[in-house]
Amino acid sequence: MxxxxxxKSDSQKKWMTDRRDRRITIAPEYHLIVTEGTKTEPRYFDxxxxxxxRLYKGRISIVIEGVGQGANTLTLLERAQKIVEKEPDKxxxxxxxxxxxxxxxxxxxxxxxxxxxxxxCNSSVTFHSLWSNECIEYWFLLHxxxxxxxxxxxxxxxxxxxxxGTKYEKNREDIYTLLKPNIKRAIDNAKRVKAxxxxxxxxxxxxxxxxxxxxxxxxxYLS
Length: 223
Prior knowledge:
This protein is of the alpha/beta class. 43% of the residues lie in helices and 14% in strands. It has a single domain, classed as Rossmann fold (3-Layer(aba) Sandwich), CATH 3.40.50. It has nine helices and five strands. α2 links the parallel β1 (29-35) and β2 (60-66).
């Protein structure tokens, strides 16, 4: 075989491309999102699903299950486990989305700890607790500002209206699109708040949120 150096013109030809430059197809991951709410959270995360599938169709599948009123944080986890049991080899990541609201402190914290325990004993599925204290609107507001003080959930609405420049309502279908341009800022703000709350259970993180974790994981798939 000739050891002559490759011509510059030849090195640019497709058939001369080194094997290490070839793309490797990665098997798709499957994500399950189970939400406490039936409107705000499902519509928001459906925006994430559409955004990913627009460029990576079939690469990541997100199934949204709005559990609705009457469910507590522990029944949310039980619902997710039953879905996974029906298709045990499908989902790699399970995300529970829930607010503090008026749930008992024990339930709110215990769901977080049970997700960690399930993930540690199950190598095939990772359970993630995407809690917000006090509500998911706190995560929305972090797209515009760093907020460390606790507010009542109703106080977030007028603040979001001011930031969005249009009235914020819980059932808006375009909320994901409106917030997405500031996603990096929201992640940074949420991580900074988490560092300030280090070592405290979710119920004592006022305010606080873990919603940023799913966006940090899937950021490279977003269009």
